[in-house]
Amino acid sequence: MGEPCLLHFFLSFPEKIPGIILLEMAVNGAVTWLRRAGEMDGYGLSASDTEEVHVLAVDDSHVDRKVIERLLKITSCKVTAVDSGRRALQFLGLDDEKEASNGLDGLKVDLIITDYCMPGMTGYELLKKVKESSVFREIPVVIMSSENVITRIDRCLEEGAEDFIVKPVKLSDVKRIIDCMMTDLREGGERRGINKRKLRDDSEDRSSTAPCSPTTTTVDSPTRRLKMTSFEEHVFSNKN
Amino acid sequence: MDLVQLQRQLVEYRTSLYHEGFLDEQFTQLQELQDENNPDFVVEVVSLFFEDSERLLNELTKALEQQSIDFKRVDAHVHQLKGSSSSIGAQRVQKVCIAFRNYCEEQNVEGCLKCLQQVRHEYSLVKTKLESMFQLEQQILSAGGSIPM
């Protein structure tokens, strides 16, 4: 799975580790990170709520909510599942009636994973609202959709989505997302603001298969390389 | 029937469901998410699928009975049904939904009605088969055995 690479990364670049990080191997082989104290670049997480990754899952389908919840729990995440974009915003404290509040002690969301096609507010609209918020824009947002339409994927990535999963969602998809998220956290958010679209033209991206290999550059993130490879696989495979 | 026979019967039955296209690898995914701490996961998800599907099939019937059919609405329901069938691996239901959506796009009433009939049929088949499979599993568990993978 790449754990030796991760350890090698830390040994080579000790200055990249903010605070204290404990690495724990979960039984199923997924890498679980426990972060304690210290300031994590760009995320400002405090000791009280960082024992587990807290994911806000948004999907109007009852079936899909149940599945994504289970997938996330298996990946050792804490999950809050809601059935609409509106409820997601309410949970975040970002709904229209009041201003964004930071006062959700212990309810800090580390990742939002949302369906694209939902009645009322779509996942894309939810993504935009999150990215427009000064308080919540740093939260990574992943879009799920049964349709692997390139224009849709592009739109979402350009609006700041972290990744795009084609449904039906598998455990490997969720593991990849969580692993990459952890890598990004470790890299301290260096890649914020970089245009992800640009990297699609880099043919070097397609050849990479290593999950989270160490890198010395700041622009070409290994996690983005992985994402591009994966979603292009989805795009070019015959899924419907 | 003794335990070993029951277990063999289950494996054969399950294999046939895949072979005949009723289930695909997504169903296997769901089974892999089940464990001793979550022993009813698959049954729970499938039950939600049954509930959702029945509601959607009723909505579709109503929508297609209208004088002036709202194809966008019909399509929205089919899209949901396609999604949930895909999520549990009910492949034959999903396939009919794909054809159904094409007819919606063409605003083809005949085609839609035909697909509605087909999807009802496929749904009813997969429901019966999954229920039989769950029953077999229950028998095995009641006999003190474990479900073979």
TrEMBL record, chain B:
- Residues in HPt domain copies: 38-143
Q: Quick one: where is this thing mainly located?
A: cytoplasm
Task: Give the location in the cell.
Answer: Cytoplasm, Cytosol; Nucleus
Answer yes or no on keyword Metal-binding: no
Q: Which Pfam families does the protein's record reference?
A: Hpt
Key words of the record: Cytokinin signaling pathway, Phosphoprotein, Two-component regulatory system
Entry-linked InterPro entries: AHP1-5/YPD1, HPT_dom_sf, Sig_transdc_His_kin_Hpt_dom
Could you tell me which residues carry Phosphohistidine?
79
Role description: Functions as a two-component phosphorelay mediators between cytokinin sensor histidine kinases and response regulators (B-type ARRs). Plays an important role in propagating cytokinin signal transduction.
What domain comment accompanies this record?
Histidine-containing phosphotransfer domain (HPt) contains an active histidine that mediates the phosphotransfer.
Q: What is this protein called?
A: Histidine-containing phosphotransfer protein
Lineage of source species: Eukaryota, Viridiplantae, Streptophyta, Embryophyta, Tracheophyta
